[in-house]
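Appendix C: a fully annotated inverse folding record. The material below is reproduced so that readers can follow the format used throughout the book. The structure is listed first as tokens, followed by the designed sequence.
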């Protein structure tokens, strides 16, 4: 049955609203994070930033290895129960997730303590950082508990609470980290990570416990009932291990071959492209994933939900990416410091990968929403192996610029792989609209990158601004047509007048 025009408009408006909301919230978080990163970059320099990134990637690897996929499979569990509207079952599911989250938190903490000597051996070729890793073990545990609480908020669609939590976490991290880094410099990295995780735990728990009083039960029944969720989560664990392991391998290899300064530069370039430029994708897990999980069957409705999300993501991200690529010579020293300018070329070419990421991410959520753990693991495994191989190879040949080229090549490969597999597995196809908008926006982005390579001074900025205006005009025209945005804005102005 064809979806009515009004329903299509409402669907598009909903996606635009929450993508803009969480993009805006992420933007606010990023602005606070920018101030923090700026101060940290000035206080620690590339070497200190690299050391912090290495500790973070190690903790993430251990967390992803031990959380049994509860943060991800928990969203699906809560989302399905929430749609049924049975309060008693909802309370039981919340208790189930919290009990398993605490269990995996304890396991993760103990594993970090036991493996500290090995982590030091693999990560560093200088000094003894065993005690640092042992001190970071509570961070692994707190991250597991935080992941469980966030899955509850996501599953019951508490989008406002998630948004407030995101902003408060970054703000508290700023207030905690800068004074400590100012006083103790690199010696404060481990204490800051512990305090920031504890602060996030308090913030998240305050929101979730207000909705559901904190209760756990480690009885055999709870553990047995959670096996279905954990069974699905095991594939997420392996995928998480592969993803975090790939990131850990790349960062450790850069540390050993290029030193902490090179690692710090790479981390800055990665943060600029994958985090700052990708803030428009922040609504994927909070709003899009629960809605996609609620679709029970394959076919038109599933395809329409995915394609609409791709359209909005691409239209919102494209003008930002043009501005990002053109403005990087100013943004990089502004957000970090002049010492990070060697990563400029890497970040500019890597930004092109974000166009493909905008189209790939909504598709990549299909196995998660369908509970198809094998497909998710297969896609993630292939991607991670290819990513490590290409990044290491291109860094060896072209240096930091090579890592940016590698990110772009891996993005192309991943997009083609995801689209092909999802068509075979779920009968998913890109819509005509998605292809049209991509053909309109991608050439503008490639041209913007060409401007950074061949033009200078006034010509650089003139043509860069023209490309930004062109990309914005395309996006606004489509959004206006799809959502009746212009008429709604006029009505709002008339009411105010």
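Designed amino acids, in order:
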């Amino acid at each position: 049955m064809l979806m009515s025009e009004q329903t299509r408009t409402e669907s598009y408006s909903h996606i635009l609203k929450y993508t803009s909301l969480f993009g805006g919230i992420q933007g606010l978080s990023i602005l606070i994070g920018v101030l923090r990163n700026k101060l940290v970059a000035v206080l620690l320099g590339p070497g200190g930033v690299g050391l912090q990134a290495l500790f973070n990637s190690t903790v993430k690897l251990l967390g992803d290895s031990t959380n049994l996929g509860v943060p991800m499979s928990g969203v699906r569990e809560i989302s399905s129960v929430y749609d049924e509207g049975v309060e008693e079952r909802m309370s039981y599911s919340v208790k189930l997730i919290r009990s398993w989250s605490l269990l995996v938190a304890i396991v993760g903490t103990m594993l970090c303590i036991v493996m500290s000597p090995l982590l030091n051996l693999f990560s560093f070729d200088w000094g003894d950082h065993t005690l640092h890793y042992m001190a970071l073990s509570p961070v692994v545990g707190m991250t597991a508990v935080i992941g469980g609480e966030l899955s509850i908020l996501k599953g019951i669609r508490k989008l406002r609470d998630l948004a407030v939590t995101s902003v408060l976490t970054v703000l508290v991290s700023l207030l905690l980290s800068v004074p400590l880094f100012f006083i103790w410099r690199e010696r404060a990295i481990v204490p800051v990570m512990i305090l920031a995780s504890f602060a996030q735990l308090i913030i998240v728990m305050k929101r979730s416990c207000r909705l559901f009083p904190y209760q756990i039960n480690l009885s055999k029944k709870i553990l047995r009932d959670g096996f279905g969720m954990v069974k699905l989560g095991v594939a997420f664990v392996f995928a998480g291990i592969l993803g975090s392991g790939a990131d850990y391998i790349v960062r450790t290899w850069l540390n050993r071959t290029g030193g902490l300064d090179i690692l710090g530069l790479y981390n800055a370039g990665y943060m600029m492209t994958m985090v700052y430029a990708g803030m428009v994708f922040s609504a994927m897990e909070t709003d899009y994933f629960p809605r996609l999980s609620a679709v029970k069957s394959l076919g038109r409705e599933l395809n329409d939900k995915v394609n609409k999300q791709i359209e909005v993501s691409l239209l919102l991200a494209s003008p930002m990416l043009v501005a990002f690529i053109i403005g990087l010579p100013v943004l990089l020293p502004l957000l970090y410091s002049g010492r990070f300018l060697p990563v400029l070329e890497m970040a500019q070419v890597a930004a092109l990968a974000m166009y493909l990421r905008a189209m790939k991410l909504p598709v990549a959520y299909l196995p998660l929403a369908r509970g198809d753990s094998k497909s998710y693991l297969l896609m993630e495994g292939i991607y991670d192996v290819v990513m490590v191989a290409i990044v290491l190879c291109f860094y060896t040949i072209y240096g930091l610029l090579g890592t940016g080229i590698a990110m772009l090549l891996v993005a192309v490969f991943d997009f083609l792989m995801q689209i092909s597999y999802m068509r075979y597995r779920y009968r998913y196809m890109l819509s005509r609209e998605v292809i049209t908008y991509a053909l309109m926006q991608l050439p503008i982005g490639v041209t913007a990158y060409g401007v950074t390579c061949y033009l200078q001074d006034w010509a650089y900025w003139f043509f860069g601004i023209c490309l930004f205006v062109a990309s914005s005009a395309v996006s606004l025209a489509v959004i206006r047509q799809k959502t009746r945005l212009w008429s709604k804005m006029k009505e709002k102005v008339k009411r105010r007048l």
